Give the backbone structure.
Amino acid sequence: MAHALGAISIVSESVPPAHTPKQQVRDDAAQITPPKALESTPPPTARPVESRAAPTTRIQKLRLLSTCMMGFGNGLNDSVPGALIPYMETHYSISYAIVSLIFVTNAVGFIAAAPLTDLVEQRLGRGRAYILAEALMGAGYVIIICTPPYPLVVLSFLLIGLGEGMDLAFNNVFCANYGNGTTALGVQHGSYGLGGTVGPLIGTAIASSGVIWSRFYAVAIAIVAINASFAGWAFWNYEAPKPRTQVPETISLETGTAVTVEPTEPSKRTLLKLALKSPVTILGALFIFAYQGAEVSISGWVISFLVATRHGDLSSVGYVTAGFWGGITVGRLVISPIAFRLGERICVAAFVLGSLAFQLVVWFVPSIVGNAVAVAIIGLLLGPVYPCAMAVFCRLLDANLQLTSLGFVSGAGSSGGAVAPLVTGLVAQKKGTWVLHPICIGLYGAMMGAWCLLPRQKKRDE
């Protein structure tokens, strides 16, 4: 995208010749601007300083690849608990409610990351911030792979959530400002879906073969090590696009020439307050809270539903979660660009309503095969919702608010990814795992409400 550059003209004045007193009076009188001339003076103009979208150079493409690799690792991390929960329950002899605590501490980590993300980048730079985020996730994996007492497993998910919350906020802002933001977000979150597809396959294969479930996290450790190295290199000298501000030009009263007035940089406290007061932040947080609540609830509890209610075999239905994440992957890679052309606002609404319809199919059709297909279709429809929504949020937010606002939106999403599965586990303890479906339907309704209340979208080229 071409940057608009303002031109500043330098006007030089010559020294006037000597005047007689009478000549001086006449000249002074001639220089007085009559009222009509003042009224016809054009208003101050504004010139853009910098465009929002970053150029797609070779290093930018490598950075996009790095965000996709981290997205893959995050998807692997988020999807595998659903396949491992039955084995964790058996190993530790714990209930649905207790095993759900991993979702809670993971959310606490995400929420803690929201106000820290911008500060960490200011202190360390983007490259080092990515290394720190991946190192926090790796530390959590090291704890889990040792198969410690369950309270330490719960604590490890706090570190994982903190690291993932940081790199997710960085990734979303980078991709949203990368040329076609919706497509870049779709590719990055499609990589997340690919990791989500692979995670349950690897986790189920390891746990069902007789190897202790925690050994899966050796794979996760290798992935975060690679991601930390590549992201640190790719983003080492990275400078985020500057806020797209308008620099006004005013007329100097003394010289009559145009003078550029540079705006002052708002403080971090001011930006934080503006971000939290923005209706886009509030509604976006509610939307992603409900979205991720439904996504993680399905991923975490659909296998338990198929085993307890449909009487499926654990070693077979354990792969249904992979179908769900496979649908998410295809949706983000294939449908997201189509949604960009058709318009994200209407497409997101259609996808949410379609997900609701197929959730009813899983609830009321007593067929394991039919349920598995419907779950995959739900993933296909939910897949493009996240990148499309994030692209809309970014277009509605000022550039200097994006990192903070999207950090809180991501934190709210993780909160939904903790609260909804926890509520599902608590209620399932009393009523049965079928409660997954009415909870998800309620979350779809919350998504529709928040989406309809969003402010009108700015033009794509703004």
Notes: The first helix runs from residue 21 to 31. The beta strands are 45-48, 246-251, 258-260. The chain has two domains: 58-240, 269-461.
